């Protein structure tokens, strides 16, 4: 009975429907992301809660296909060097994560192993001395990805995007030295429909 109630709630609630349908998508159609839609996604991110209401996040948006591809190549080279420094075990684990393929993607067909040829990449920064920035940006990013899904776009958080700061292309983002990248997110019209991964449910303790 309880399960039936939950399922009924999920069907009736558009918010829950969006939450349950959102996926990390790594294959995109060759279609541009409309600037007006991106603005709405940013507005959704801005509505997230933040510590002391500082709203310290800033957004750096890249939509030029050539620039995104160059960023990806530069990040891949830098990441490879970092893996080598970390040792053999770390290299293998990191490469598996970096060159992670999902649902029908094949190695020879992929030319962008970081941003997956998505038409839009948003880098999210915060001041370097902000203790709560990671939490704030996590909530902001989730708002953005859910908003995108509700408007027909897919997305994927890309942690490797922060490696751009170690490349010679980093100045192109015009990020002040007082800020640091916490996360990058790709957006676009997905060309795959990944199945949901099994969720861990035995991880809650109710305390009276």
Keyword list:
alpha+beta; 4-stranded antiparallel beta sheet; NADH Oxidase; about 15% strand; about 210 residues
Ordered list of secondary-structure elements with their pairings:
Blueprint: H1 2-12, H2 14-21, H3 35-46, E1 58-62, H4 65-86, H5 88-98, E2 120-127, H6 133-150, E3 154-158, E4 179-188
Antiparallel strand pairs: 1-2, 2-4, 3-4
Number of strands: 4
Relative helix content: 25-40%
* Number of separate helices: 6
- Please state how the strands of the largest beta sheet are arranged side by side: 1-2-4-3
Instruction: Give the helix/strand class.
Output: alpha+beta
Strand content: 5-15%
Please give a quick description of this structure.
Helix content is 39%, strand content 13%.
Describe what you observe in this structure.
With 208 residues, the protein is α+β, with helices and mostly antiparallel strands. The protein is 39% helix and 13% strand. The protein has helices at residues 2-12, 14-21, 35-46, 65-86, 88-98, 133-150; strands at 58-62, 120-127, 154-158, 179-188. A four-stranded antiparallel β-sheet has the order 1-2-4-3. The longest helix has 22 residues, at 65-86. The radius of gyration is 18 Å and the shape is globular. The two termini are 24 Å apart.
């Amino acid at each position: 009975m309880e399960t039936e109630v939950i399922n009924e709630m999920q069907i009736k609630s558009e918010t829950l429907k969006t939450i349950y349908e959102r996926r990390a998508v790594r294959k995109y159609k060759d279609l541009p992301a409309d600037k007006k839609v991106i603005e709405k996604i940013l507005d959704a991110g801005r509505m997230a809660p933040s510590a002391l209401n500082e709203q310290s996040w800033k957004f750096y948006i890249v939509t030029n296909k050539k620039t995104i591809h160059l960023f990806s190549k530069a990040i891949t080279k830098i990441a490879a060097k970092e893996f080598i420094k970390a040792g053999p075990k770390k290299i293998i684990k990191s490469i598996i994560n970096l060159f992670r393929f999902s649902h029908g993607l094949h190695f020879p067909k992929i030319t962008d192993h970081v941003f997956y040829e998505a038409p839009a990449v948003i880098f999210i920064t915060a001041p370097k001395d902000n203790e709560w920035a990671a939490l704030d940006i996590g909530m902001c990013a989730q708002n953005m990805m859910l908003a995108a899904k509700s408007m027909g776009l897919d997305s994927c958080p890309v942690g490797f995007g922060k490696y751009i700061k170690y490349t010679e292309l980093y100045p192109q983002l015009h990020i002040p030295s007082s800020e640091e990248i916490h996360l990058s997110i790709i957006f676009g019209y997905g060309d795959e429909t990944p199945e949901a991964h099994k969720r861990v449910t035995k991880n809650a303790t109710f305390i009276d």
